[in-house]
Amino acid sequence: MFEHSVKVPRHYKVAANIFKKVSTEGGSVKTLLYDNKLKHFRTNVLYALITETIKHAADIDKIFENCSILEKETRLDPWLAKVLTAELLFGKKSLPGKSKPEQTILSYKDQFQTYTTDHQDDLKTEAIRRPRYVRINTNLLTTSDAIRAFQDEGYRFIRCTSGSYDDYLQQIQGLTEEDFTQDFHVKTVFVFAPGTKLHEHELYLENKIILQDKATAMAVHLLAAPSGSVVFDMCAAPGMKTTQLAAYMRNEGKIYASERNEKRYQTLCDFVERTGSTCVETMHKDSLEIKRGDMDDVEYILLDPSCSGSGMELCVHNYIEATRLAKLTSLQEKFLKHAMNSFPKAKRIVYSTCSLFPEENERVITNVVKTSRAKWRVQDVNELLKGKWNNFGSAMYGSMGTRCLYARPESDLTTGFFLAVLDRDEKDLEKSLRNANKDGVEDVPKGINEEDSVISEDKFKKRRNNEKQSSKFDNTKDIDGECNVINNIYDVEDGSNLPYVDDAAKKRKKNKQEQNELNENNSEEIFVKNKKKKNKDKDKSDKIKGTSSELATGDEETQRKKKKRKKYIEDKVEIDEQSDLTELVKKKKKKHDNENVVSNDDFEIKNVSAKKKKKKKNKELECE
Question: Measured between alpha carbons, how far is residue 155 from residues 134, 148, 149, 152 in Å?
C-alpha cells in the first residue's frame, strides 16, 4: 500500500518545476535559480539534479515509451517522473522518500534497468564534454600572476599552439586534470580539463577569476573597444561581458550598463562592484526608453538581447513554439533597430545570442540592416579572425548570413553561440555627426521629408537641458547566466510588456507637421500684411495725385512741391516693398510717414486757398 499522506520531498518538486519551464519556455536553469523563493534551498543540489535530468532527457523518453509508464500511471506528473527517474538511474541511484510518485517509479526500476542494459549503444548517456574556461579578471590580477598562482598549486601550464585553429582544438581535447593552457583567441581566458572544480578556489572567491565560457568572451574580443572609448551594454545583467569590457578597456573610458529587471539589476550592480569595474555606470532602465540625445557620446554597442537560449547546454529547446519564437525575434529586431538609429556617434555594434535558431540570428540581422535608415555593413568575422574559425552563418540569408559566426558545442567545444559584427558606413557616420550638431534638427525618420524635420523650440530647449543634466546611478557567485534568456526579462507570452517604439516616431512626426503648418501660416500672414501695406501706400499716392491735379494752378512753386511729394511717395513705396526690418521699425516708419503726409497736404491746401482768394479779389477789382 502507498502512503498517500507522505509528501514528495520538496526539492524534487522544485526541480521538476524548473525542468518543465526550461523545456516548454526555453529558459535558463541558472536564471531560474536566481529566484529569491529558492534562497533556503541548496542550489548546488538542485542544479546537479536538473542537470542530470536534462542531460538524459532523451534517454528517459525512450525508457518511458518502452515501459508505457505514463499511459499506465495517468495520475503521475510526467515532469516529476523524469526527475525521479534521473535520480534513480543516473544520480544517487536511489529514492529516499516513501511518497506515492517515488514508490511508483521504484516499481518500474527493474524494467528501466533491463531496457538500459539491452540498449546501451542506442542511449546517449554522455553529453559533450566541454573544457572548463576561466577568464582572468585583469582589473584585480595579471595573467602572468595567474599562471604562477596555478603553477604553485601543481597545475602544469602548456603554451597554446602557434598552429591552426584545428590544432588548438586537438590540444585542449588532450588536456589532463593537471594541465591548463591559454585560449587561442582571447588571451585573458585560460582553458582547463573538463570537470575541473574551481568554485571553491581562492582566486574565484576573491573575484580574480571568472568562470565564463569562451563563446561569450568572443563578443567583447570582436567589439575591440579601445581604452578611453564610450561603450553601451544594452542588456547587461548579470554582468559577465560588462566586466570583461571594463578589463579590456583597462577601466579607462565609460561603460553604460543597462538592465530593466530589478533583481537582475541588483545582481549586475553587485558583480560590477566586486570585480573592481570602476568605469561602469549601471542604469536601472529599459534600453529601448533611451532616446536620441540622451547618450549621444556612445561609440560602441554590445547587444545580447533576450533569446530562447537554445545554444546552452542546460536548455531543452525542442519544445519552443513558433509563435513564441516569432515574438522573441520581433523583440530582438526592435533592440537592434534602436541600437543602429539612436546613437549618432556609434561606429560598431556586436549582436550576439546564445541561440542556434537562424530566426533569432541571421534573419534578424538581414531584416534590420536592409530596412535601417542608417547605413551599416555586416563585417566578415572570418576576416576579422584571420581565417581561424570554422563555423559561420547560413548562405540562405545571402552574404550577410555567411559573414556571421557560430560557436557550436560539438565542434568548437563551447556553448552554442551566434555573433555578428556591424560597422557603420563612414560617410553615414559623418552625416549623422553633422545632423547631431545642428541646433534643433533631428535625423529624419524613414518616410518623413527633411523639410518636416524641424522640431519645436520648446522641445529643443528641453532636450538641451536633459543633455546638461548627468544622471547618477549607484554601483552596487558564479554568475554563469551568460545570456539574457526570456525569463524575468520580457513577458513575451502575450506581448503585453513589449515596448512599442513607434509611438515616439508618430508623436515626433505630428509635432513637426504642426510646426510646419504654423510656419506656413506665419509666412502667409506676413505676405498679406505686406500686400495690404503696399496697396494702402498706393491708394495714398493716387489720392495725392488726384488732389494735386484738381488744385493745380500752374504756379511753379506748387508744381515743384507736387513733384517733390510724388517722388517722396514713390521712394517710400519702394522702401516698404524691399524692407526686411522688424515690425517695430515698420510701425515707427508708418507713423512718421503718416505725419509727413498730413503736414504736406495741409501746406498745399493752404497755399491753394490763398491763391484762390487772391485771384477772386483780382477779378472783383477788374469788374469794378
Answer: 14, 9, 9, 7
pTM of the entire structure? Answer: 0.60
CATH fold for domain 10-118: N-utilizing Substance Protein B Homolog; Chain A (1.10.940)
For the chain, give the percent of residues with pLDDT over 70: 64
* pLDDT tens digits for range 601-619: 555 555 556 666 666 666 6
How is 101-153 classified by DSSP, letter by letter?
A: HHHHHHHTHHHHHHHHHHTTTTS------PPEEEEE-TTT--HHHHHHHHHHT
Q: Which of 354, 404, 483, 623 is catalytic?
A: 354
Scan for cell 518502452, then name that residue.
Answer: 66
| Position 184, amino acid | F
Name the CATH superfamily for 229-500.
Vaccinia Virus protein VP39 (3.40.50.150)
Q: What pLDDT score was predicted for residue 594?
A: 58
pLDDT for 11 beyond 70: yes
State pLDDT tens for residues 244-285.
999 999 999 999 999 998 988 999 999 999 999 999 999 999
Cα 263 to its chain centre, rounded Å, is 20
- Pairwise CA distance, residues 577 & 508, whole Å: 37
Averaged over 160-168, what is the pLDDT? 94
Q: For strand 209-210 and strand 189-192, is the pairing parallel, antiparallel, or unpaired? A: unpaired
Distance CA 331, CA 506 (A): 19
Angle between helices 262-274 and 240-248 (to 10 degrees): 30
Q: What would the mean pLDDT of 309-313 be, rounded to a whole number? A: 75
> Looking at the DSSP assignment, which residues form a beta bridge with residue 407?
417
Higher pLDDT, 81 or 470: 81
Task: In the chain, count H helices and then E strands.
Answer: 24, 13
Match domain 132-210 to its CATH number in 3.30.70.1170, 3.30.420.10, 3.40.50.2000, 3.40.50.11030: 3.30.70.1170
- Let me know if 315 is a catalytic residue: no
Which three-class secondary structure state does DSSP give residue 156?
A: strand
CA distance 474 to 424: 32
Structural domain spans, the chain:
10-118, 132-210, 229-500, 524-623
Mean pLDDT, the chain, integer? 78
Euclidean distance between CA atoms 19 and 13, whole angstroms:
10
